[in-house]
Specification:
single chain, 139 residues, alpha/beta, Nucleotidyltransferase, domain 5, 6-stranded mixed sheet, 3 helices
Length: 139
């Protein structure tokens, strides 16, 4: 008696292409839906990184410009100041100009903690409209 079974090749392949194609279509569909649901960066609110703004442009009327250079020095409207003066100035600005925007212009070599400190001061002053621009150091 021969108890050995002979393996026959199956008619279906080990990996079915129909199910693989369904997975590809599903992933493509999820990608498209994700693109439609996520707003573009310009509509994302305060967390907006803007490239290409010229730091030498005149200050827009009613807005405050905070500059951070490569060494971490802060200035408001080109007037150097300390962190405490920045906090006081932002609180005063937010009470006087509720609809205005704060423009944060940083050097690409500016310390990250200094930039985050400015954003934290904006949040504490209840300023929700701001723009961040990083420009390369010209030195």
């Amino acid at each position: 008696m021969n108890f050995r079974r002979h393996l026959r090749p199956t008619d279906s392949p080990l990996l079915q292409s129909a199910s693989l194609l369904n997975v590809v279509w599903l992933l493509l569909g999820l990608f498209v839906v994700g693109l439609l649901l996520v707003p573009p960066p310009r509509e994302a609110g305060g967390w907006l990184a803007v490239a290409g703004n010229d730091p030498e442009d005149p200050q827009p009327a009613g807005n405050m410009v905070i500059e951070i250079n490569g060494s971490g020095t802060l200035s408001i409207n080109r007037q150097p100041l300390t962190k405490e003066e920045l906090r006081e100035g932002l609180v005063k600005f937010s009470h006087e100009n509720a609809d205005s925007m704060v423009l944060v212009r940083t050097d690409t070599n500016a310390p990250l903690m200094q930039v985050l400190g400015v954003l934290d001061a904006c949040r504490n002053a209840e300023i929700h409209h701001y723009r961040i621009t990083a420009v390369p150091d010209e030195h």
